[in-house]
Write a structure and sequence with these properties.
306 residues; alpha+beta; 4-stranded antiparallel beta sheet; 8 helices; 30% strand; globular
């Protein structure tokens, strides 16, 4: 099965996989759930997406099941993917009719802060207002503007980056490292509110139309609480001692923020070793896996950690 990543379609996240025979299958990542798998070496194309309108899109599997060449796609699927065109739409780029309909729906501008204090500006369609931030693994986030369409919101996003220096992307590695030792919740909340206030002040003084400044805080998933809050859950945290590019892996999920899990590592006996581990399940995206009673190899690491 080919892993398409961690999805937050509701407050109960899942690992989404695809097979030519069964289509998409979701494995729920609930508290205490066990996840055992073996990764087949290689990184594979996830296919491409055709957008027909707001809330209406079709996934097209890679016809040749090719290795990934550009991100998580082969060259042919990358060229056919509608979603790659949305980032230039506000600069006058041409887009298909279905993607235009998607982009012309109302959008939100948000400011998101992560566990290490890194803060970014981003956008979300009206239908994915909450889910977008859940999948990104924000610790605190604030909505700062409501735009009448995706063109306006991306103009605002670029303006905030240019004028205030807020980035539009935070690397996965930084998110994971921050969750191993998250900064205090009150500090992160203050960081987010300070940046959000500055963005609202900027937007409130613009001679632009098509949007309104808003003050609204994002509601973080309860399942992320134990991972996002410093000291929550007790015990020492460690980086996951393996990479998801090959071999067997076994985790017991305790919490999840975006695609990053706080997990226990079961031994062959079924008992978890001491401590909790922060694992980026996003590393499984584009990997082919086989599910089963697998465990993570940790012999040399265990002595050095405890």
């Amino acid at each position: 099965m080919l892993v398409h990543g961690v999805v937050w379609d509701s407050s109960s996240p899942a690992l989404r996989m695809f097979s030519p025979d069964a289509g998409f299958t979701d494995i729920a990542l609930a508290q205490g759930s066990a996840l055992g798998l073996r990764v087949i070496p290689g990184l594979w194309c996830l296919g491409h997406t055709k957008v027909h309108g707001p809330g209406d899109r079709t996934h097209v599997p890679c016809r040749s099941e090719s290795p990934a060449e550009r991100g998580k796609q082969c060259g042919a699927c990358f060229a056919r993917d509608d979603s790659r065109l949305m980032h230039d739409f506000h600069r006058g780029g041409s887009v298909p009719t279905g993607l235009r309909a998607y982009l012309m729906q109302p959008h939100w501008l948000y400011v998101a802060t992560f566990a290490n204090g890194a803060t970014k500006v981003g956008t979300a369609s009206g239908q994915r207002k909450w889910n977008r931030l859940a999948e990104q693994g924000a610790v605190h986030a604030s909505y700062v503007a409501h735009a009448e369409d995706g063109r306006v919101v991306r103009v605002l996003e670029d303006l905030v980056t240019r004028e205030l220096g807020l980035v539009q992307q935070v690397r996965s590695a930084a998110k994971v490292a921050g969750l191993v030792e998250p900064r205090a919740a009150v500090e992160l909340s203050a960081v987010n509110r300070r940046h959000a206030r500055t963005v609202r002040e900027l937007l409130g003084g613009l001679a632009l139309t098509g949007y309104s400044v808003v003050e609204e805080e994002w509601d973080r998933p309860e399942f992320a609480e134990r991972l996002c809050v410093a000291g929550a859950g007790g015990g020492r945290r460690h980086p996951y001692p393996a990479t998801f590019d090959a071999g067997g892996h076994g985790l017991r999920v305790h919490a999840l923020s975006g695609a990053v899990a706080l997990a226990g590592l079961p031994e062959a006996s079924g008992n978890d070793i001491e401590g909790s581990f922060v694992a980026d399940l996003g590393g499984l995206k584009g990997r082919k896996i086989e599910l089963g009673p697998h465990t993570t190899e940790i012999p040399a690491l265990q002595d050095s950690l405890f």
